[in-house]
Design goal:
By secondary structure, the protein is of the alpha/beta class. The chain has a single domain, classed as Alkaline Phosphatase, subunit A, CATH 3.40.720. It is 36% helix and 14% strand. The protein has 12 helices and 12 strands. The strands form 2 sheets. Strands 1, 5, 6, 7, 8, 9, 10, 11 and 12 form a 9-stranded mixed β-sheet that branches. β3 and β4 form a beta hairpin. This is Twin-arginine translocation pathway signal.
Length: 394
């Protein structure tokens, strides 16, 4: 059977939503797939370069207010005598007060790149700015861990396409936006007929293999997603729906250690405050519902939610009441199992800049090493090649 370009694209579209090792989903069918009390990591990517200075605000820094005379946040919710949080993140403030949120400021890497695509690749692959890797830090975690996993169902991304972060050399996560939509797509007669009549062909064999696995197993993901479907109320935003999907899966028997979500775009060159407020409100409401859901089910101690963005913004505002691409930024950590709470380090130094940009003080790869070693109990040196120590907040 000759495959036409149109058919190839149709297969690719379904395969992209289920980019995986062929036996990935079959492992989910084992009755004992769930490991009790396992630690779960949820990564929330702030796509587009969130402005960290208007997220955690240096409330007593004259340079901040001078350089941002029109967009400075003047009604920040107080965290300390020197720092506040954007008022649109009121639930994050509550988490902070409860000892369930930590903030790492001024996180970055040497020789920062201000391209969205390149800097995101660096963060997702945990590479140096001068090297190009085809695998992600969580994908390499799968490579190291899944060779000895009885049920290698370790990572899921709630999106239509799989991010570089979750692509390993031998193992990859599974990406889908909606279990129902994935199931409905897999049941289309065209895909079933195409798979039933295909011939082996080196150029498309992997696509056919993935197609067959998806058809055979999408129903299982769909059933698992509703087996212990959460009854908690979530906001109707896309992020709210994504967190609701994750909550249902966490309660099911799927043995998943890592979930990956994204929200954006934070590329706020124009009218930054309005855009950032809308995004923060969506994030705040979704996280509030998710944390309440996990707490009510006794799961919050074993869940760590981590946020990052590919870069921050420049210290000075631009002429369009926005900010342009910058460098260092902060990361949030939310969990009932934090060892250190609150602000983990000092606020960014606004007096000593590199041509108007922040100079990072914390390397993001040390944060990843901390998560891998202390939370996921993995060998961070093998995954990252990082041997410069870890933090102690988890």
């Amino acid at each position: 059977m000759l495959i036409k370009r149109r058919e190839f694209l149709k297969i690719s579209s379904l395969a992209a939503a289920s980019f995986m090792m062929p036996n990935f989903l079959k492992a989910m069918t084992f009755d004992d797939a769930l490991v009790p009390n396992q630690k779960i990591l949820i990564v929330l990517q702030f796509t587009g370069g969130n402005d960290g200075l208007n997220t955690i605000i240096p409330t007593r820094n004259d340079i901040y207010f001078r350089e941002r005379n029109k967009i400075a946040i003047r009604n920040a919710l107080s965290l300390t005598d020197e720092a506040g949080i954007n008022p649109a993140l009121s639930y994050f403030k509550e988490l902070y007060d409860n000892g369930e949120l930590s903030v790492m400021s001024n996180v970055g890497y040497p020789d920062p790149d201000k391209s969205h695509f390149r800097s995101m690749d660096i963060w997702q692959s945990a590479s140096k700015s001068s090297e190009y890797l085809e695998t992600g830090w969580l994908g390499r975690y799968l490579d190291e861990e899944c060779y000895r996993c009885e049920h290698p169902t370790q990572a899921l991304e709630v999106d239509d396409m799989l991010s570089l972060a979750l692509k390993g050399e031998n193992n990859k996560a599974f990406a889908f936006k909606d279990p129902i939509r994935l199931y409905q797509t897999s049941q289309e007669k065209y895909f079933k007929s195409l798979y039933d009549h295909h011939h082996d062909d080196e150029t498309v064999s992997y696509l056919y293999q993935t197609l067959g696995s998806t058809i055979n197993n999408a129903g299982y993901i769909f059933e698992e997603s509703k087996a212990r479907k959460t009854e908690a109320a979530y906001p109707n935003s896309q992020l709210g729906k994504d967190f609701k999907t994750v909550a249902s899966l966490i309660k099911s028997d799927i043995n998943t250690r890592v979930y990956y979500l994204s929200v954006g775009s934070f590329d706020t060159h124009v009218n930054q405050n309005e855009r950032q407020q809308k995004l923060f409100t969506d994030i705040d409401e979704a996280v509030k519902s998710f944390v309440a859901d996990m707490k009510s089910n006794g799961l919050f101690e074993d869940i760590l939610l981590m946020t990052f963005s590919e870069f921050g913004r420049r210290v000075a505002q631009n002429a369009s009441n926005g900010t342009d691409h910058g460098t260092a930024n902060q990361m949030f950590f939310i969990s009932g199992g934090l060892k250190r709470k609150g602000l983990l380090n000092t606020l960014p130094d606004l007096q000593h800049l590199n041509e108007g940009d922040l100079i990072y003080s914390e390397d993001f790869r040390k944060v990843y090493a901390t998560i891998l070693k202390n939370w996921l109990q993995a060998d961070s040196s093998k995954v990252l090649g990082w041997k410069n120590g870890v933090y102690d907040f988890v």
